[in-house]
Design brief:
By secondary structure, this protein is of the alpha+beta class. Helices cover 40% and strands 27% of the residues. It is built from twelve helices and 18 strands. The strands form five sheets. A five-stranded mixed β-sheet has the order 3-2-1-9-10, with helices on both faces. A five-stranded mixed β-sheet has the order 13-12-11-17-18, with helices on both faces. Helix 3 (83-97) packs across helix 4 (118-131), helix 5 (141-148) packs across helix 11 and helix 6 (189-204) runs antiparallel to helix 8 (251-274). The radius of gyration is 21 Å and the shape is flat.
Length: 343
């Protein structure tokens, strides 16, 4: 009776704790929040950090804060880099999911990159428990992405998923609800942004911020020539004379800038295919490769991968939310939770 009553008040949560964005799935409701994984922190007189803003509000502050306030990304390459700030961010999202009712302690499913160490798993688990979780289950991101992309992961057949997140790209071959082979590279959306900023600095002597680099990637980024050359004006600081300046760049130039990190993603896919058992490789020839994660939205990436592998490549229906949707499905189906999650 108590458990049934507790279940009515406890809104179980699944969290895609990403380097770039954190998505929140509440049992019975679906995705209720999709915000940048950014926290604005002020240093108090006592030296203790105090959270000023989280998510969209904090991201607007990136590169624009006074000395005593800093906007930080508490996750790097898919794992926790700042324990205290991650905890504060998780607490904010839990309170948001429960309409500020902090007495409710939800069960939580949290996505983690494949192959993280036991120490990193413990850091995620402890952060969630300190932020107010009653039970914490961990699920590997490629599995969650495959579930969110509606791949038949519990069947004895090969499914290949490429999850391109903010900090990492994870390529996995999945069969019978387990990862048969996986390859993870520390290349994702953030590395693409860095490549754009470095190119603009080197080619045009112009220093641009993190948010400008991301906007260029979204509007002009491409991995395969499609005959459509797009142009945009960008503003930054001239490195020669130190004054603000505006220039124009085009999509061909940005494809050249992104070539190196994109090649790392292609190599991770080829490396995984080389190590896939032949029976599962035969299934992948029939089914092809499925792309998920924000990086899957880079124009021309499916065409480039199809050209390099000779296999059909498709982007799943909702690449940005695939991991969150998959972890939410795990939360809804207790049998699936037992099969794929670590407690």
């Amino acid at each position: 009776m108590f458990n049934a009553l507790f279940g009515m008040f406890s809104k179980d949560i699944a969290i895609d704790l990403g380097t770039a964005n954190t998505l929140l799935y509440v049992k019975g409701k679906g995705i209720v929040s999709n915000e940048p994984s950014v926290v604005a922190v002020a240093t108090t007189r006592g030296g203790n950090p105090q959270v000023v803003a989280v998510g969209h509000e904090a991201k607007m502050m990136l590169g624009k804060t006074p000395g005593e306030i800093r906007a930080v990304r508490p996750l790097k390459d898919g794992v926790i880099a700042d324990f205290a700030v991650t905890e504060a961010m998780l607490r904010y999202f839990i309170q948001k999911a429960h309409n500020r009712r902090t007495f409710v302690k939800p069960r939580m499913v949290i996505c983690i990159p494949f192959g993280v160490t036991e120490v990193e798993k413990r850091a995620v688990r402890e952060s969630a428990e300190n932020a107010g979780a009653s039970e914490v289950y961990l699920i590997e991101e490629p599995l969650a992405a495959a579930i969110g992309a509606n791949l038949p992961i519990t069947e004895p057949s090969g499914n290949m998923i490429v999850d391109i997140g903010g900090g990492t790209t994870e390529v996995a071959v999945i069969s019978l609800a387990g990862i048969v082979h996986s390859c993870s590279v520390k290349t994702g959306g953030d590395r693409l942004d860095d490549a754009v900023a470095a190119h603009v600095r080197k080619r045009h002597n112009l220093l641009i911020g993190e948010r400008t680099a991301e906007r260029i990637k979204i509007e002009l980024g491409n991995a395969w020539p499609d005959g459509d050359v797009r142009v945009m004006a960008i503003k930054g600081r001239d490195l020669m004379d130190g004054i603000p300046k505006e220039i124009e760049i085009d999509s061909d130039e940005i494809r050249e800038a992104l070539a190196e990190p994109v090649q790392l993603i292609v190599e991770a896919v080829l490396s995984t295919l080389e190590r896939t058992p032949p029976e599962l490789a035969a299934d992948i020839v029939d089914k092809g490769i499925v792309l998920a994660g924000g990086g899957a939205m880079l124009r021309g990436l499916p065409e480039l991968l199809a050209d390099r592998t000779g296999l059909p490549v498709v982007v799943c229906d909702d690449p940005l939310c695939a991991v969150a949707i998959g972890s939410g499905k795990v939360l809804e189906e207790i049998e699936l939770l037992r099969n794929v999650a670590f407690h």
